[in-house]
Specification:
This protein has helices at residues 17-27, 52-62, 65-70, 112-125, 244-249, 251-261, 263-268, 318-337, 343-370, 378-382, 390-400, 413-436, 443-447, 449-467, and strands spanning 5-13, 33-37, 74-76, 78-82, 90-93, 107-109, 129-132, 135-141, 146-152, 158-168, 184-186, 192-200, 213-218, 221-227, 232-240, 273-274, 284-287, 291-293, 297-298, 301-303, 309-310, 482-484, 491-493. With 497 residues, the protein is an alpha+beta fold. It folds into three domains: 2-74 and 101-186 and 290-351 and 460-465, 3-Layer(bba) Sandwich (FAD/NAD(P)-binding domain); 192-287, D-Amino Acid Oxidase, Chain A, domain 2; 358-456, no CATH class. Strands 1, 2, 7, 8, 9, 10, 19 and 20 form an eight-stranded mixed beta sheet that branches. Strands 4, 5, 12, 13, 14, 15, 16 and 17 form an eight-stranded mixed beta sheet that branches. Helix 1 (17-27) runs parallel beside helix 8, helix 8 packs antiparallel against helix 9 (343-370) and helix 9 crosses helix 12. The longest helix has 28 residues, at 343-370. Mean pLDDT is 90; it is low at 402-406. It binds flavin-adenine dinucleotide. Flavin-adenine dinucleotide binds at residues 13-19, 36-39, 45-50, 135-136, 169-171, 174, 176, 194, 236, 286, 288, 305-306, 310, 313, 316, 318-320, 322.
Amino acid sequence: NSARSETFDVVVVGGGPAGSTLAALVARQGHRVLVLEKEFFPRYQIGESLLPSTVHGVCRLTGVADDLAAAGFTRKRGGTFRWGATPEPWTFSFSVSERMAGPTSYAYQVERSKFDEILLRHAGRSGAVVREGCAVADVVEDAERVRGVRYTDADGARREAYATYVVDASGNKSRLFQRVGGERKYSEFFRSLALFGYFEGGKRLPEPNSGNILSVAFDSGWFWYIPLSPTLTSVGAVVRRDMADKIQGDRERALTALIAECPLISEYLSGATRVTDGQYGQLRVRKDYSYHQTTFARPGMLLVGDAACFVDPVFSSGVHLATYSGLLAARSINSALAGLVDETVAVREFEARYRREYSVFYEFLLSFYEMHHSEQSYFWQAKKVTHHDRTEMEAFVDLVGGVSSGEAALSEADAMVERLRADSAEFAGAVDQLAHSEDGSMLPLFKSSVVSQVTREGSQVQMRALLGADAEPEAPLVPGGLVSSPDGMFWLPASSG
Ligand code: FAD
């Protein structure tokens, strides 16, 4: 039956932030894009705290930023942390100075069911064919490349869709990523478990920080406290993985006990009640193990978002990496389909940049954990870089390998530990300065090397989205590498960029 087999330029598996971003950016170039999504939207998802580069960078490039602005999400000016040496909470703001909040120095806290639906509908309006209730079972391949996918549609019929590129954006639960080859490597350092639920009537931080994420370290791990609306709060505890039995046994009891262990969160929830019905009614458990696939692409197939890699949620980087990788992959696909750049070169650029961005966050998060100390706590003792053996550091060096700054020191795991220690100390010092500063200036933090690295690429994407052709020309990431076109939609050789 010919209706059961169709041909597109790109088939995207999964309609989360990674898939919708890529689909919109490729469809807007006039290419035929099919998005196959297993669920019917709106559907629940975790990952509610965003970064400015998603909101003002990637989402401006896809054209969905105004829809997001109209949706009424909580504005997030930054993060407030009870973390590190300072006993009082300190606040990181996305603007360099507390008093100078620029027009793009905020992000949103989002109900993902709403946010993801806005992005998926926007992909549809951008020209992509979006089909919900369609679960992809496998890829179709030959000796040369991946040629398409097999899926079951909403009526239960088996179908095939062929395409020049299959993009796996199916998140962390799907197994499709295995078809790209290589191996999924898990980090020992970041293996933990999250237990989370929703509350009505929790307290808010004093203005102007009422929309901030509040992250609180305590002996068993750390809490997130995310204000989704004036009254609804997402609350989650991240704890050791060996507490799994305790948590799975009686989730309600486990969460109550963890909250009782953490004075600040207890205080914020003192007048609140847990939501017990609807999409927020259950207490959920997720492993938040960090991992990365050793290869992100093969001929005819690319991995984006959680299908490719995931890093610990403490700095809200998941949706940033998902949408940013969607943008990188879209540039590669747009350039190859238009014949501007050789496919292999275009895909190599995607992988190098994505890997670099992932490793920048990975390194930042190592520093983040390194700065909190608690003598009695197993959780925090295990989160010391120096307590990990060479293999963990070697895995990290492999990850950075070839795409980082090229410092010779990076080739040595021991040298890496030294550098991480120095960076962590510098970061902890900057936090200390911030916590004790009178004017709330963020300068010391933004100047510290791990923070400036982690904000660099995001601000570049924001500038590109805001200024288009007026933005400063980019430097290639690697000598002889590609740069983005003035409109941000393609890769070009550096000389003509
Ligand atoms: P997803 O959002 O998972 O979307 C994938 C889609 O693919 C889904 O809709 C799914 O239904 C569909 N799909 C799956 N299999 C198939 C198939 N076979 N066929 C068709 N469709 C399929 N990130 C943040 O930015 N901020 C946070 O505060 C944050 N907190 C987190 C807390 C925890 C405990 C965890 C575990 C993660 C957190 N994250 C956070 C990370 C965030 O959840 C993810 O990084 C993000 O959702 C990844 O987006 P994605 O588009 O890659 O995948």
